[in-house]
Automatic annotation (TrEMBL):
This is TIGR02234 family membrane protein. It comes from the Bacteria. Coiled coil: none annotated. The chain crosses the membrane at residues 45-67, 74-96, 120-142. The keyword Transcription does not apply. The keyword Glycoprotein does not apply. NCBIfam families: trp_oprn_chp.
Length: 207
């Protein structure tokens, strides 16, 4: 499940990079002196957050290899927030009433010289698709985090094994039913997993 989420994150990052290269808005200006001028704004020009968000998705794909439990949940939340932000950027380009004024500001041309504007929907659509991919990947990461044992549980395992070794030794069953790992844990604790008396034990003197 994590591998699939990583593949989706990489795919979403590539889609965002492609969206940042596609044209989003075009503005036409005429100052009355020279020829009319046309300025085309790419996705990266229209929204400077596209490329950083793509890097966030790539970083999340790498981080998913190294973290588990609560940290993996945090990565999933970060991916979900990034996906929601990308979706907002793409949808806002569709629904904004007029792109001419902002386009002129980004193209660094006077608004008074504007004679027309045009928006392109393909780049924003790719961004929205990347957002959906990121949200799906976030869901997969969250499900994987729920199924993965936490670090505290893993670190508690040696203690549980030592308790099991102790109970095996106390009830006199010796090494029967004890795994090799449990025997090594008992030796690390200074206990004899065979249950035989320690000749160096002062309590055994005179017996």
């Amino acid at each position: 499940m994590i591998r699939l989420a990583q593949a989706l994150l990489v795919l979403g990052a590539l889609a965002l990079w492609g969206a940042s290269r596609l044209p989003w808005v075009q503005v036409s200006t005429f100052d009355g002196l020279g020829q009319p001028k046309t300025s085309t704004l790419s996705g990266a020009d229209w929204s400077t957050a596209l490329v950083p968000l793509a890097l966030v998705l790539l970083a999340a794909a790498v981080a998913a290899l190294a973290v588990r439990g609560l940290l993996l949940r945090a990565v999933a939340v970060l991916v979900a927030v990034s996906g929601a932000g990308v979706a907002y950027l793409g949808i806002s380009q569709w629904v904004v009433h007029d792109v001419a004024v902002r386009g002129a500001e980004l193209a660094e041309v006077p608004v008074s010289a504007l004679v027309g504007s045009q928006r392109f929907y393909a780049g924003a659509a790719v961004a929205v698709v990347a957002a959906v991919i990121a949200l799906v990947a976030a869901g997969l990461l969250m499900r994987s985090a729920a199924r993965t044992p936490t670090a505290s549980a893993r670190y508690a395992a040696p203690a549980a094994r030592r308790d099991a070794v102790h109970s095996e030794t106390v009830d006199g069953s010796g090494t029967q039913g004890m795994s090799e790992r449990m025997m090594w844990d008992a030796l690390d604790e200074g206990s004899d997993p065979t249950g035989e008396p320690n000749p160096q034990d002062p309590d055994n003197k005179g017996r």
